[in-house]
């Protein structure tokens, strides 16, 4: 099971949108996936069309991590039924560990090493998934540290803008320090430039700046600004099953991004065993 955190220390760069896009690509590829909504705003839970029926949210599960059964409290995404209606569709899994404001009690800067392992403890007892995507809050407080502790890789999301590039540099420094102190095997999956306008000279300049600063960590393709993204998310719909050429172009880019973020050999092996 591969665990990937989607992170940024600057808010408003589209981190949750990228989590949803990767989840959509995983569903389309037939990869059994769990999305952990660790952001107290719980936007990923909303965007995934979750309809709970008594399950416990991730905040309450973290509180009782030693005994909590995360697997018993995941909720199927509302996208699964839509995907199943597509011609030639194959059965797949996309479940959600629901976000809530209750997780906010752990989003503090002084979280101890033992508390940082709460999410790892919960995930250690979960079975049946090849991929776990963690939507992190935009800070380096306790919840992001929990996510990084539990993860194999961290995907950083940035916009091609001055403050976002500076925030990405801060995140890279923080990630390196965290790796040295707590998680020596943690890898950087890359830096994803989001909301790119190809006609913008400023965006072209900032993308060049990012490539000079971070080299091959800047992933290709970048994600263009999507005019109907708010509509897709407002409908709690998978981008892979939204009509129109722009949505299909975005879907193809998320397919490629998924291959950059995960280990394809491990994905194929796990899916084949199922």
In short:
The protein is an alpha/beta fold. The chain is built from twelve helices and seven strands.
Question: How would you sum up this structure, described in words?
Answer:
With 274 residues, this protein is α/β, with parallel strands linked by helices. 43% of the residues lie in helices and 13% in strands. Strands 3-4-2-5-1-6-7 form a seven-stranded mixed β-sheet, sandwiched between helices. The two termini are 13 Å apart. The relative contact order is 0.20. Mean pLDDT is 89; it is low at 269-274.
Q: Main attributes?
A:
alpha/beta; 13% strand; globular; 274 residues; single chain; disordered C terminus; seven-stranded mixed β-sheet
Number of strands: 7
Order of helices and strands: EHEHHEHEHHEHEHEHHHH
The largest sheet is:
7 strands, mixed
Oligomer: single chain
- Enumerate the spans where pLDDT stays under 50 for 5 or more consecutive residues: 269-274
Helical residues, percent: 40-55%
């Amino acid at each position: 099971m591969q665990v990937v955190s989607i992170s940024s220390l600057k808010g408003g760069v589209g981190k949750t949108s990228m989590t949803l896009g990767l989840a959509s690509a995983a569903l389309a590829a037939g990869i059994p996936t769990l999305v952990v909504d660790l952001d107290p705003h719980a936007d990923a839970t909303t965007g995934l069309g979750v309809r709970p029926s008594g399950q416990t949210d991730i905040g309450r599960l973290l509180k009782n991590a030693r005994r909590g059964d995360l697997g018993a409290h995941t909720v199927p995404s509302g996208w699964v039924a839509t995907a199943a209606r597509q011609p030639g569709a194959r059965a797949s899994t996309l479940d959600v560990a629901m976000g809530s404001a209750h997780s906010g009690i752990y989003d503090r800067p002084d979280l101890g090493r033992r508390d940082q392992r709460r999410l790892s403890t919960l995930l250690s007892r979960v079975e049946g998934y090849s991929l776990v995507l963690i939507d992190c809050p935009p800070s380096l407080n306790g919840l992001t540290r929990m996510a990084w502790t539990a993860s194999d890789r961290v995907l950083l999301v940035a916009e091609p803008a001055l403050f976002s590039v500076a925030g990405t540099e801060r995140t890279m420094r923080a990630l390196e320090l965290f790796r040295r102190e707590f998680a020596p095997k943690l890898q950087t999956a890359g830096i994803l430039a989001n909301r790119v306008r190809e006609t913008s000279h400023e965006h072209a300049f900032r993308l060049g700046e990012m490539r000079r600063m971070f080299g091959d960590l800047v992933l290709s393709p970048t994600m263009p600004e999507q005019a109907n993204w708010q509509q897709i998310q407002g409908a709690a719909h998978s981008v892979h099953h939204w009509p129109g050429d722009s949505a299909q172009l975005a879907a193809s880019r998320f397919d490629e991004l998924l291959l950059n973020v995960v280990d394809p050999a491990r994905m194929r092996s796990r899916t084949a065993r199922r």
